[in-house]
Design a protein that fits this description.
Beta-Lactamase, Helix Hairpins, MCPsignal_dom, transducer, 273 residues, Methyl-accepting chemotaxis protein, five-stranded antiparallel beta sheet, alpha+beta
Length: 273
């Protein structure tokens, strides 16, 4: 049994043990002694088929050169890796060639998916950055509103002071009107006109006191509403801060995913070249 016959017997085992779905052929210097296609790559050859003169891999092997070629997708529909080695006889002359080939269809799909993932993650990064910018703007706005709300509460306290002063004035005015009415009654008819004025002053004081009470009541309601709004705005501000932190964390995760996808793409290219 010569070396070519031995390789013909071993070729089916090479096909089974290889990690790829390979096409394999064993030739002498003129024809094929063994040919087995892969599921996706079939040149339509049989035992006894002549060696194609345009097959650079086999031609180089028969010339004594070990060759590995990457054929573009235009040749067989998918990128193909082909490899060939010379078969040497007992006298170390080339008596034939052993060649195999396999498509990179799965690798191409994986590379395409990787590119798609990269595109998605890049789009997500842009979206997250946009959300982060809006979150920061919202946080700044709520902080500004919160400051204004607190200032409004402080200003309303000043209004309380004014209404307290008006109430005190109305009470004093009411007291003065009462004293004036007493004096007018004491002097009789001479104080009748003054008594009318004193009565009107007392009425005005009472009305001022009632109005002041209504103002204080309304102001108290407004202050309660403002304080409630302050608490709600504070809650929004805290939520905005948490949102900004989550967006930053999410952005970091996407960046890590993008880095892993790039590394995968480099890895795929490294073993398909």
């Amino acid at each position: 049994m010569d070396i070519v016959e031995a390789l013909v017997l071993a070729a089916p085992y090479f096909k089974k043990i290889h990690s790829q779905d390979i096409m394999i052929g064993v030739t002498d210097k003129e024809v094929f002694h063994y040919y087995a296609p892969s599921r996706t790559l079939d040149l339509g050859l049989d035992k006894g088929s002549p060696i194609p003169s345009n097959d650079a891999t086999l031609m180089n092997a028969l010339a004594g050169q070990r060759t590995i070629n990457r054929l573009p997708a235009e040749v067989y529909g998918n990128p193909v890796i082909s490899a060939g080695i010379p078969i040497y006889g007992p006298d170390q002359t080339v008596v034939g060639a052993l060649a195999l080939a396999y498509t990179l269809e799965n690798e191409e799909k994986l590379e395409s998916l990787t590119k798609e993932v990269n595109g998605i993650t890049n789009h997500l990064v842009d979206m997250v950055q946009n959300v982060a910018a809006h979150a920061e703007e919202l946080s700044a706005t709520t902080t500004h509103i919160l400051d204004n709300t607190r200032k409004t509460v402080e200003d309303s306290q000043e209004v309380n002071k004014v209404t307290s002063l008006i109430r005190e004035i109305s009470e004093q005015t009411n007291l003065l009107g009462l004293n004036a009415s007493i004096e007018a009654a004491r002097v009789g008819e001479l104080g009748a006109g003054f008594g009318v004025v004193a009565t009107e002053v007392r009425k005005l004081a009472v009305n001022s006191k009632e109005a002041t009470h209504d103002i204080e009541k309304s102001l108290s309601t407004v202050q309660l509403s403002i304080k409630q709004m302050e608490r709600e705005i504070q809650s929004i501000a805290e939520s905005s801060t948490v949102q900004a932190e989550l967006v930053t964390e999410f952005s970091d995760v996407i960046e890590r995913l993008n880095k892993a996808s790039n590394e995968m793409a480099v890895f795929i290219q490294s073993f398909t070249r």
